[in-house]
Amino acid sequence: MIIFCIAAAMLSADREYPTFIENTFGFIIVPLQSLNAAIADHIEDAANYFKDVDRLKEENNELKEQLLLQNAQLSRMEYLKSENDRLNALLQMDNKYTDFTTVSAKIIAKDPGNWYSNFIIDKGSDDGLQKNMAVLSGDGLVGRIKECGKNYSKVIAIIGDSNAITGQSIRTEDIGYITGDLSDIGSCKMEYISFDAEIIEGDEIVTSNLSTIFPPGLKIGYVKNIHTDTNGLTKFAQIEPAADFRHMENVLVISGDFSDDPEKDFAENSDTQNDY
């Protein structure tokens, strides 16, 4: 071994070219070393990639948390805005009907469908409400209380009520009797208008002083069109209600008896009686 080592050292001194054996080992070792270096580079790249993926996941989760927080804040702001709008609507209604004693109520249920023709409010006899009290929205007359419980009331709207409301044109003071129009859902029908009446399209219709349950002057709606009855003696008109019966959250109930005759208690009569 000593002689071999000395010989190898002497042979490797001042050489210009590697030996055959070294070249042979080079052909074998160098590709393996290159492959090992490439694998090491790929492993390092993969490790960096997964590090970047973990970092991006962490940043993505942070962004999601921030987005959820912002959405929660926006939802809170929208809720507060909605609640503020609701309170403002109630305040405007209270200010609009200052001549009457009113009770504000919130709609808590309704019949199926798009229209608020029958619904339930969260106030009842414990709050001083009674059957047949007038129900209003910010735009005008909604209907009347059909049934009154201790802490709730059922309301029937003018668009679905078969009882007639005495209404009149503000412009001409002509009288007619208004019911829900079954042929045109969401509208009302004003019947028994005098043939000589000068009511025209666009006239504002309000409750008259002949009503037994509604105070006079409450806005009902506007004349959409007017026609002559088949008998040729009277007219009838379609009325576009002032209240929005598709979108409704809060109402006001007018408490009090507006009958000219104290003995007329409409609440004790049947629901089929007309308000003549």
Structural account:
There is one protein chain. The strands form 2 sheets. Strands 1-2-5-4-3-12 form a 6-stranded antiparallel beta barrel. Strands 6-7-8-11-10-9 form a 6-stranded antiparallel beta barrel. The chain is rod-shaped, with a radius of gyration of 43 Å. The chain has helices at 2-11, 20-96; strands at 101-110, 118-121, 134-136, 141-148, 153-157, 165-169, 175-180, 188-194, 204-207, 219-228, 234-241, 250-255. The protein is built from 2 helices and 12 strands. By secondary structure, the protein is of the alpha+beta class. The chain folds into 2 domains: 24-96; 101-256, Thrombin, subunit H. Residues 259-274 have low confidence and may be disordered.
What helical percentage do the residues reach? 25-40%
Strand adjacency order, main sheet: 1-2-5-4-3-12
CATH architecture of the largest domain: Beta Barrel
What gap, in angstroms, lies between the N and C termini? 133 Å
CATH topology of the largest domain: Thrombin, subunit H
Q: What top-tier CATH class of the largest domain fits best?
A: Mainly Beta
Structural class: alpha+beta
Tally of individual helices:
2
According to DSSP, the number of beta strands is 12
Number of domains: 2
> What composes the largest sheet?
6 strands, antiparallel, barrel
* Shape field: rod-shaped
Computed CA radius of gyration, to the nearest angstrom: 43 Å
